[in-house]
Amino acid sequence: MKADIVIVGAGMVGSLLAAALKDRHLDILLIDTAPVTPPAADAPYEPRVSAISRASENMFRHVGAWKKVTAVRYSPYTRMEVREEEGRAELVFSAADIGESHLGCLVENRLMQWALTETALENPQVRLLAPARVVGLERYASHWQVQLDSGEIIEAGLVVGADGAQSAVRRLAPLSMEVWGYHQKAMVCTVRTSRPHEATARQIFLKTGPLAFLPLPDPHLCSIVWSATHERADQVMQMDDETFCRELGTAFGDALGVVEWTDRRFAFPLIARHTERYTLPGLALIGDAAHNIHPLAGQGVNLGFLDAAVLAEEIGRGLDRRLPPGHESVLGRYSRRRRGHNALIMHSMTGLERVYAAHWPWLIQLRNDGVGVVNRVLPLKAFFERQALGLEGDLPALAQACPDIPDFHRASA
Question: How far are the Cα atoms of 101, 102, 328 from residue 96, in angstroms, in the given order?
Fold first, then answer.
């Protein structure tokens, strides 16, 4: 079997890349270890939910996947509130302050994956092979040979690793990776609160790590992400539901009233990873295959979407110049545009996490003073609010407003 591009990993990021390239007259093969199943509108909420930026929402709109998401369920949020356990200051961002309808949206990961995969497969030149597992990679002069666990061999001019943090492509290529731990675990689940969330994303920095309540479509349901030291997380995970709800309410405070119910909890270790290179001849890494980041600012999947959009843009530019998708200049431009930006965000988030993990009195005072300045200086606050939208910096065309809906990201008059 032959393909112009083999994308290993039909998750959110890999499927966005396929959807972005579906009209470029390329034979694209998506490979995943599991089938992609349609979500049910009345199914319980998935524990893995992502806060997607306005830039990411634009990408979904451009490729035609956003209507599939909104037909099922999603939750726009209009405010963000950030505070700390030991502080008195609270940072509040509001979409209305900058003339926007919302700051971002909460969407379940599986729903996004399905919407993007279905969109990509609308073109018969895009195929999905699942379940299948990549077990071998071999480089030849003009192509890669991809070996599957079935024994099948696929020849591809470009192989894209979009297969997550434990990427087989990265391991088989091989590409080395820098790894450092946060010494924390993240706990995720859905909870119901007695007070409505009012379309507000809330986060508190506790002594043991950040805790976020992210609004779901039901006004009394939130997806939580609770990052804590290993010891604290293990303790929390062993609690029965009643004790957990009580402990969660105590940690978060009374902004949402009583935590009345919790769904099943899941926990995973927080580890930062960053590959030393994003590309080899005819091969590229995107998303979690290239980088992992702390979830405290919800940047992870948005960085991955930007990877996919930039790679698609550079492949398109190359095709316009009659260059194949895996050409050295195409992949070089992708790497230069994304690796430095991702490194900056990763190290910024690591620094922020360490600043809030320290409990020296003088640093607590400094943090509170800094938050107060941001809240009082409106141009500075507006700058950070625009950053939260993800609409600043080197944006690919897919991340920008759709020309056929010029004001879709603006608040109604």
Answer: 7, 8, 45
Say if 369 falls within a structural domain. no
Taking each helix axis from N to C end, the angle separating 12-21 and 109-120, rounded to the nearest 10 degrees, works out to: 20
The arrangement of strands across the sheet holding 75-77 comes to: 49-53, 104-108, 75-77
Kind of pairing between the strands at 153-161 and 283-285:
parallel
Cβ pair 75, 105 in contact under 8 A: yes
Residue 363 has pLDDT above 60, yes or no: no
- Give the separation between CA 362 and CA 201, rounded to whole angstroms: 28
- The whole model's pTM is what? 0.90
Q: Determine the Cα–Cα distance for residues 251 and 243; give it in Å rounded to an integer.
A: 12
HSE, side-chain direction, 13 A CA sphere, residue 311: 35
Write out the DSSP string of 277-341.
Answer: -SEETTEEE-GGGTEE--GGGS-HHHHHHHHHHHHHHHHHHHHHTT--TT-HHHHHHHHHHHHHH
Has residue 66 been placed in a domain?
yes
Query: Residue 10, SS3?
Result: coil
CA–CA separation, 162 vs 66, rounded Å?
21
- Using alpha carbons, select from 311, 315, 336, 312 the residue that is nearest to residue 327: 315
User: Would the pLDDT of 92 be above 70?
Assistant: yes
Q: CB atoms < 10 A from the CB of 354, how many?
A: 10
Contact of 29 with 127, CB cutoff 8 Å: yes
Residue 286 lies in a domain: yes
CATH assignment at residue 157: 3.50.50.60
Section 280-284 average pLDDT: 97
Buried b (16+ CB within 10 A) or exposed e, 251-270: bbeeebeebeebbebebeeb
Instruction: Enter the tokens of residue 334.
Output: 């992708």
State the residue range of the domain holding 159: 2-50+58-74+105-179+272-358
When divided into structural domains, the chain yields a total of 1
Tokens (6 digits) for 375: 């809240």
Q: Which residues contact 309 (CB under 8 A, 6 or more apart)?
A: 16, 20, 59, 396, 397, 398, 399
pLDDT tens digits, residue range 17-58? 999 999 999 999 999 999 999 888 788 899 899 999 999 999
CB atoms within 10 A of CB 398: 24
